[in-house]
Every structure is written in C-alpha cells, then in structure tokens.
Amino acid sequence: MRTPLVAANWKMYKTVRETVVYIKEFRSLVKDVDDVEIVVAPPFVSIAAAAEAARASNVAIAGQDLYWEKEGAFTGEVSAGMLREAGAGLVIVGHSERRAKFAETDRDVNRKVKAAIDGGLVPIMCVGETLEERESGQTLAVLDRQISAGLEGRTVDQVSSIAIADEPGGARGTGRTATAAQAQEAHAHIRGRVREWVGSAAADAVRIMYGGSVKPANARELMSRPDVDGALVGGASLDPRAFAEIVAGGRPGAVK
Ligand code: PGA
User: Fold this and answer.
1) Measured on CA atoms in the order 243, 248, 252, 255, is the torsion positive or negative?
2) What pTM did the predictor assign?
3) 172 CB less than 6 Å from ligand 1?
4) Domain range holding 136?
5) For the domain that residue 163 is a member of, what is the CATH number?
C-alpha cells in the first residue's frame, strides 16, 4: 500500500516569522495523523526555521526547487546538499510556475530529479499540461513527454521512492479543480506509463499526487480515487487549519 503524501507548496508566501508561527500551530493540529506523509515547502530562507519548528513532529520540510550542481558560481541558486543540511527531506521539482515563468525545460527537470536523489532528497516531480495544451487535446502527450524526460536514466528503486505531482492546466490557482474522475484518469495513465517504461515495482510504489485548487471540501473525494495518492496544495495550504483538514482527508473531526 502506498502512504499518501500531502504537501503544502507555499510558493512566495510567508516570512520566517510567519513560518514558525504556522508550523507551531499546524503540528499540533495534525499530531494524531499517522496514515499520511505530511510535508510543508516554504521559501528557501525559511527552511531551517521551519525544520527547527517541526522537529520531533510528523511534519517534514521540503524545498520548492533546487539547482543540479553541488556548488559553484551559480548566483541565486541552492543545491540539494544545502537544502538537506538546512533540514529539508524533500524538494519540489519542475513546478508549472518554474516551467512557465522561469523557462525550465524537461532536461532541467531531469537533472534536478537526479541531483535531488543523489543529494538524499525525495523529489516531488511536477507534471501537467497548460490550459492551452489541454484545450487542444494534448494532455496525455504532454504528460508522456514530461514523465519520460523527467525520469530518463533513473533506476527502478529511484522511481519507486519519488513522488509525481500531476497539476492539470486550468486547475491551478483558479478554483477550478479537475473532477476526481478526471484526476483518476490522468493518474491511471501516468502509472500505466511508469509501468511500461520502468516496470511494475516502480509503478506500484510511486506516489502520484494531484495538484490544483485542492481544498478541505474536495480533498476527500479526490484522494479516495485509487491512483490519487495525495495532494500538492497551494492557496489552501497557507491557512494551517485548512491544510490540516486536507491532510486529514477533508475530515474536520480528525483535526484537533
Ligand atoms: P493551488 O496551487 O492549490 O493554489 O491551485 C497548486 C500548485 O500550484 O502547486
């Protein structure tokens, strides 16, 4: 059985101080959740403080990006080793905003996935078509390209240990979530490709998360689908109680 992974992608929100206040409240809200892997990805500058605030809890900390070199003259960039030492255990790679606004390519994503694994971080590799690609019927072709390029060169064990986040065009930040049936269909396709290209062991183990306007009201329905193994949550994760309810599968009663 795959343990669902539910991650908060804070994007460029919250200062160090706000991060510590959030984590202290959030960790007590989710302290009894033992069947979900819980992750918060704050901006780089807050990772060390977030990791300290989350120490000895069931909340792990992730970076939102990384660079693939270990060190060097790469102004503004951060390596896997730096993230790990600061307290991150995972890292988001290839988010659609990185691809669209910072010109990241499939090749960059491939290098980042490799660098994350080599540096001891679990990558959450984001895939997903743009709204334009969706409307012109290219969804599955785009997913295939991003998955095959992103995972190229990785071993069965490596693919088994990573997570893939599917964020369909038009669903992110828009309030228009894909239906659970649409998410299941895309995820089943992704898992099928992993089965074809990497093998059954990796396909059965890899977590495929859904991202795009996930909220307490729709989390349960989405995550009840067999191939939806968690969520990558942007906007709704900025509120600790809302994110705690999503983590608990939309069950408000499960949140203290
Ligand atoms: P959203 O963001 O939940 O605000 O749609 C998801 C994401 O972009 O990771």
Assistant:
1) negative
2) 0.96
3) yes
4) 5-247
5) 3.20.20.70
